[in-house]
From TrEMBL:
Keywords on record: Signal
Leucine-binding protein domain boundaries: 1-337
InterPro entries tied to this protein: BCAA_transport, Leu-bd, Peripla_BP_I
The protein's name in its UniProt record: ABC transporter substrate-binding protein
UniProt cross-references to Pfam families, sorted A to Z: Peripla_BP_6
Transmembrane portions of the chain: none
Signal as UniProt keyword: yes
Amino acid sequence: MSGPSASVGEEMKRGAELAKEKINSDGGIDGQDVNLHIADTESEPAAGRNAVSSLLQTESIDVLTGGFHTDVSVAVMELAAQEEVPQMISNSVGGTINTRVKENNYKHSFKMAPPHEAYGVGWAAWLQYLQENEVGYFPFDSPQIALVGENTSYGNPIVDSVESNLQESDGNWDVLSKDSHEYNETDFQSLLTRIESNDPDIILCAQSNPSAAGNFISDFGDVGFEDTHLLMTWTPSNPTTLETGGSTSNGVLWLTNIGVLPSQSETLRSAWNDAYDSSFPGTNASLAYDNLLIVAKALKEIGGVEDLDVSTWEETVLNLEYEGTAGTFRFQEENHQSEWGPDSGIPPLGNQVRDMSNHLVWPDEHAEAEIDEGLY
């Protein structure tokens, strides 16, 4: 794997390999073993399209799986439409995918990860919980928040969704500022110094680049904020973020729009620990794992790949229900998005970093630990 999200790609690759081993040990699909062919997208749409195109030309590909960056997944989705190849997108968040599916009446593409709106809904709910339960520096009389997002189809829509949901809530939120930065940014000192001058109660940052997120955390510590909570999206689940962020990572609260439920991930965690000399990374690996298992279940329903076409694929997946590590996956007919939200089978999950590791702390029904308020 290469590109700025290479570490994420490696996690996804390992998760998919574990799923392949499970499928094949259970008899494969219609008696045939599953084979994985890996394409390195380099985190770039053109490179991703070219890599997948090469695979389609040189290998016998029945279904396309995976996908992290939304822009890359869109490029691959357009190629899959031309080639009429079924596709199950695993980790991409951006709603652009759902919009394209709906506008073009695509039958072939489905998307597992909830869209950016899930972050807006999830953060509004968790922030209300933190206020009501007076956690850490909470409550704030009139909470003031600074929003920061990377300038991508991931970061910008999440920031907009968070702002919209906070404005619609009854928490009297005051958005002090909204800033964006480039995907590969490494120096956040000047940005954070300016934000610090406004004395925010909270900084909420939406990033998909683990290295950039780690630098953001490190610079947050260097600038010297006092009594300010740093909130982030999924990146602290990646070891690169914590390593780069250093000890300042401890105390960071982060939310993922889709996570790993302890009660439903024992098999994967055990397989990971047996196979790899590294701690289980979480969401990216688990989504890639569930991704392949959903595909396998659909193909078994169809009866293998002999009669596979995009119409049969669409009909089968729309009638599918799969219990995965993140919850229950069911797909919507309108835009092929998995159902999401607090009241669906895929809840948002809140975590706290402490002792340089992650702990699931919200919502209460899924929490493995309480928030350590001694860090604030």
